[in-house]
Give the backbone structure.
Amino acid sequence: MNTWTGAGFQILQSVFVVLAAPLLMGWVNQCRAWLQNRSAPPLLLPYFTLAKLFHKDAVVARTASPLFRATPYILFGCMWLAAGIVPVLATGLPFAPAADIIALVGVFALARVFSALAAMDTGTSFGGLGARREMMIGFLAEPAMLMTLFTAAFISGSTQLTTIVDSLAHREFALYPSLAFAAIAFLMVLLAENARIPIDNPATHLELTMIHEAMILEYSARHLALIEWAVAIKLFAYMTIGIALFLPWGIAPAGDWRALPTAVAALLVKLALAGAGLALIETLLAKLRLLLAPEFLSAAFLLGVLGMLTHFLVQG
Amino acid sequence: MSTLHAALALALAWLAIAASSLVPSRNAAFARRIAFPLGALAGLGLAATGLAAVWLPLQTATLPLGLPDLPFHLRLDPLAGFFLMLLGAVSAGVSVYAAGYFRAEPSGRVALVAFQYHVFLASMAFVLLADDAYLFMVSWETMALASYFLVVTDHRQAANRSAGFLYLLIAHLGAIAILLCFGVLHGGHGDYSFDALRAAHLQPGRATLAFLLAFLGFGAKAGMLPLHAWLPEAHPAAPSPVSALMSGVMIKTAIYGMVRVIFDLIGNVRWEWGLAVVVIGAGTALFGILYALMQHDLKRLLAYSSVENIGIILLGLGMAMVFIGFGHPAAGTLGLIAALYHALNHAVFKSLLFLGAGSILHSSGLRNLNDMGGLIHRMPKTAFYFLIGALAISALPPLNGFVSEWLTFQTALQATLLQNGVVRSLVPLFAATLALAGALTAMCFVKVFGVAFLGQPREPADPSPLPHAGDAGDMERFGMAWLAAGCFVLGLFPTSFLLVLNRVCVSLGRAPLSEQALAGSGWLWLVPTAAERASYSPVIFLLVIVAVTLLTFFLVRRFFHGRARIVDAWDCGYPEQTSRMQDTADAFGQPIRHVFGPLYRMDRRLPGPDDPAPRYVLKIEDRHWYWLYLPVARAAEYISSKIALLQQGRISIYLLYSFITLIALLVFVR
């Protein structure tokens, strides 16, 4: 594949992810509203919200340091980078060798650390509370995520996401028990990392058990818009990682423009189903007490480890 | 002049600086303006020499010193060169910092510190250059003594004296084990040069004994579990530049010793040993960071975090031994490289963090995180450097901590090579431990930076010195900037150091990295095994993240606006907010106390509901004190109290002992 085609793929995909991410958010909200017998908000509502926020004047706390104002941009940059690593439409991404799955987890950790620091910056009680809880979720979710990815890495003998997806997508159909464990662990991590029920509730403010919302309470206008957008990209990235690892069929092989329409169609169908599934989970489950969150996540971590061990026991 | 002579001259220069700082006695200005900057220059020179020595053939020399018939042997090989580079580069930054740091101390003490400090540096250089057990032990003990006196610099505080005593005690336990290890290795030929030890063929049993003694002896110095207890006591007691050297460099000499004895002198590594090292390493890493999270004394926290990082290094070393023991030399080399890389990285960022802690201590007089807050507004430059150190130690890309953890993970992912099914599934478990420890480190340093630098001062302004705190001085800042730059260089250009370390491993008689790895690695790409297996490019990573962040910024400015109103913090609109309502360091650790409760020895007292002056007390102690140290101390006291019965303090009794001994000798020996 020549470099320019690759770069074209790369840029196209990153921009696609950044632009499509709020749509997924809207779709999940719509599905959830339907499932809960509410009249659904319009599908494009997240875009309108972002536009509204970008036009407003920002309000910044007097006690805030430059870190506070830089963080939304850093968060957005991190998520954009993540969107560039994950093979969403095609596997031939020239940027992908620069950052493998461990670096991908590192990007999410970088974003988490900065958002926690920004939350503590203004010196409000809710900010510190949110930062502490976010790091509590993170210290268990991050290793669980790594274990899931390592299971896939052991199967395909590589830590590069594109190579993993290539080898998983083009293998003969076989059931990997280790991947089953990994998939459950991944789902739990996805829920926790994206501040979803049962760990956190994205729909509420002013609830004493809030995590993510507590961290971003002091943000407004363009800063808030960037953070909300970054959150949407993060959800999109996690969903596509899950799809790439566990349902990789239909992705376009390296440099093949003609496979792209099929890939887009397959992705849209898979994402629509995944979004509806997420809404279903959020409707069926109740939010866990905050102190039970570590148990939920240590279960995810242990499932991930179990998946990795299963790989060695079964596939030997 | 060969590199060995240059290294020797620079080490001697440190000794000369040490001696000269005593001469103009009570002249602190000499120590500050001349001794420390000269020491920094010597360090810089030593770093360059060490780096050059990695690429040159090894050199040896014999010094006509020491005892008759027992001269000192010196040798500069790539392994020693690498560690000399670590010592020189880190100490250069620390010395510059020290030149600015000791400005408020009484002058006699500064001269004394300058003396001990440079003796300490020189002894570490000689530990690395030594090529026989004799010179090694002499330098090792000089290092221990010099650092002991530095630890008790502030000897008027009883806590520092007892910390120093504990340090000296465990250092000597370790030294005895190392001495015995050399004894076992040498097996009675009377030649204690490393060449002779290397050539000796050991029975498997003796080799294992030598390994255990070396592991124990060097592990005690490195702060390995359960011999770590001195580290969180002694490192914080010393002045901050010395803490930086002890945590950054001194414990790495123990890693050097371990690598030298196990991989070089014993040579024939067994996988069972590796498993022991990995298990202890995993325990050390997890324990260290869990206790670091519970600390509110900044320097103590950093010391516990050093324990964790030693654990990570041991994980790498142990995995290397497992792979080599099972006959996978290339994977073993990767593990060794990961461990040594982490040793270098930790030296850089931990020294940086200790120096930052020193600047905070200097400008505000505070070590307790619970009293700090909002320092970023008063010392923004220190905050910036400290943030770099904190991000680096949290293993976040694209800084240096990430590279070595990445390499350690890559080593663990080679587990599929192993034949033994149990070991094969154990190795990934240790990767899981490393992942957990890494994530906990991020939490720990969010706590440190968030509580100390962000937010607002937690104590009311009146008694708190915080409002008067100013930024660090020029020299201090320069020292920190040097180390912060090191975090970037080591993080962004890992391949150069990978090649250096590859050469070090080859010189130890290990296999080089695979051909694909060496072919795939350029300055841009880090490829530890093969390009299709794994690769990482920190430069591209950094460029992309900076580019997209800036692009976002300019797009937002271009299409929207940059207006902002500066107002009071909202905080959900609750009135009556005070800065005391922020999370303290203890509060930040609460989820960890909840999850890992049984690991701590906790004493918590909650105030009753109608207590007029409520006070919340929380004390967390190291469990090792209660199951290991105190019983041993009690046993030692009991035995010595029994032995003390012999000592009546009356001369006639002692004469009686001599008389009985004489009779006994006459009867039995004749």
Notes: The longest helix of chain A spans residues 3-35. The two ends of chain A are 35 Å apart (CA to CA). The longest strand of chain A covers residues 58-61. The mean pLDDT of chain A is 86.
